[in-house]
Write a structure and sequence with these properties.
Largest sheet: 5 strands, antiparallel
Helix content: 55-70%
Oligomer: single chain
Distance between the termini: 27 Å
Strand order of the largest sheet: 1-2-3-4-5
Radius of gyration: 21 Å
Amino acid sequence: MASGTEHAEGAGPFTTRLTWRLVDGGTAVWESRLARKRARLTVHAAGEPEPRSRTADSVAVGRARRLNAVAAGAFTVGGALFALGAGLAQFGAVTGAWIYFVGGLFFNTGGYASLLQAVNTPVREGAVGGLTTRPWSWWRYEPARIDWLSAFLLFAGTIVFGINLVGSLLHGLSVQQENRLIWTPDMIGCVLFLVSGHLALVEVCHGRPRVRAHELAWWIVAVNQLGSVLFMVSALAAFTRPATGGLVNVDIANWGTLAGAVCFAVGGVLQFWERP
């Protein structure tokens, strides 16, 4: 067993980085995102001048690499399709509803792949400063982990957005039905995305969100959170006024969706480099 935890970092009940002393006198540093995305932690062995990375076994590394590729690809394609749909709605004569719908399926895929990464994250082994691979699972309920909670809320947001996208395919809806079936799920999905993004920022910053421009993980999370903010701006502008039957501001709704989608596409591209 480890001789005791030296330092735990995070926010509230969540631990995002843990440093402890090993029985041989060295130290090990576990970070939740590093373990989840790259299946590794950092070990500074006694007598060695520099710390070194220690990865989990090939099974965990392979899982992390494949799931990362699926999530990155899905968000890249989904974001590109959303941007295309918004561009057509702004500059063309079509609504782009079916393009949004297909893009939403890619967002669903990316959200679930992200959750699977959290579900199958290797767990730390205190005595030797290593990571142990868990049996594969399609689902685990672990809300006490900030990475699991962030990924779960992200996936839930993509599902709620799906309700919004299905509603947008329906014709002949009244103003009340449009706001209930399209606008309300859109707002709920945006809130879920924002909360998920905030938790992700807390995770990479190990506490209060701040700028960490030297870290790839921070850029991925920050760009995605900017996309979530722009999606929320778009959703607020997409409310249908009962008195007129028109949106609050069509241009803001379209441009907000386009810019937010580009952010998620960029975040997806960056995520290709955050792998074991």
